[in-house]
Amino acid sequence: MSLSVRDLRWCPECADERAFETPPCEDGHGLDCLDLSCLDCGFALVVGVLVDDAPVVVELAAA
Ligand SMILES: [Zn+2]
Ligand SMILES: [Zn+2]
User: Fold this and answer.
1) Which residue in 3, 11, 26, 44 has the most C-beta neighbors within 10 A?
2) Tens digits of residue pLDDT in 12-62
3) Nearest to 33 by CA among 61, 10, 3
4) Domain-located, residue 36
5) Closest ligand to Cα 3
6) Full domain range(s) for residue 53
């Protein structure tokens, strides 16, 4: 089992497909953290939220 997950996703910053990796989580999500950051430019991408009674929101945040 690995702490880092690499995934090929569209990066709005790079305007291209880039490898994304789960960054060290500062929110206590641990292995459940769904944050991804672009290995190229560091753009942070949240691919999902683990909240039951809230609508699923995709948040985009510039690093
Ligand atoms: Zn997290
Ligand atoms: Zn990027």
Assistant:
1) 11
2) 999 999 999 888 888 887 777 888 889 999 998 887 655 555 555 566 776
3) 3
4) yes
5) 1
6) 6-61
Question: At CA 18, angle to CA 16 and CA 23, rounded to 5?
Answer: 135
Q: For residue 36, report the distance from its CA to the centre of ligand 1, in Å.
A: 9
Please report whether residue 1 resides in a domain.
no
Centre of ligand 1 to C-alpha 26, Å, is 6
- Per-residue model confidence (pLDDT) at position 29: 79
d(CA 56, CA 15): 24
Domains contained in the chain, number: 1
CA of 51 to the centre of ligand 1 (A): 13
pTM: 0.58
Residue 18: inside a domain: yes
- Residue 4: is its pLDDT beyond 60? no
Q: How far is the CA of 61 from the centre of ligand 2 (A)?
A: 12
